[in-house]
Amino acid sequence: MPDKQIADYLRDYCKGESRAVTSRELGAVFGVRGSELRGIVNRLRCGGIPICSSEFGYFYAGNEQELSRTIRQLTSRIKKIAAARRGLISAQTLYTDGGQISLPLEGGDSS
């Protein structure tokens, strides 16, 4: 896995938001696709590597403000995902069998 290489690259060449690199560019440099790159970035972040992102791409945090903005962005995404999860949980009642037997209203029992 190119995790360390990507972390080193971002630290050495993409420090600060003004030097952000798009995921497409970063993926091309290391020969990884978007979903794999997102997984790598997630692992790096989980390991305490200050990889930030913005509308301009990925970058190594240049200061505490950049890191705080990325933390706020992730917190906002967490809240939106949690709200969607709650909505889907409430929708489960549409598919839950209440355990009751239903009988046809017309035609009834013909015995």
Order of helices and strands: HHHEEH
Terminus-to-terminus distance: 71 Å
Helix content: 40-55%
Shape: elongated
Q: pLDDT average, as an integer?
A: 92
Cα-based radius of gyration, to the nearest Å: 24 Å
Computed structural class: mainly alpha
Biggest sheet, spatial arrangement of strands:
1-2
* Major sheet summary line: 2 strands, antiparallel
Number of strands: 2
Count of helical regions: 4
Instruction: Return residue spans where pLDDT drops below 50 for at least 5 consecutive residues.
Output: none
Tell me the β content: 5-15%
Description:
With 111 residues, this protein is mainly alpha-helical. Helix content is 54%, strand content 7%. It has four helices and two strands; from the N terminus they run αααββα. It has a two-stranded antiparallel ribbon. Strand 1 and strand 2 form a beta hairpin. Helix 1 crosses helix 3. It is elongated and about 75 Å long. The termini are far apart. The mean pLDDT is 92.
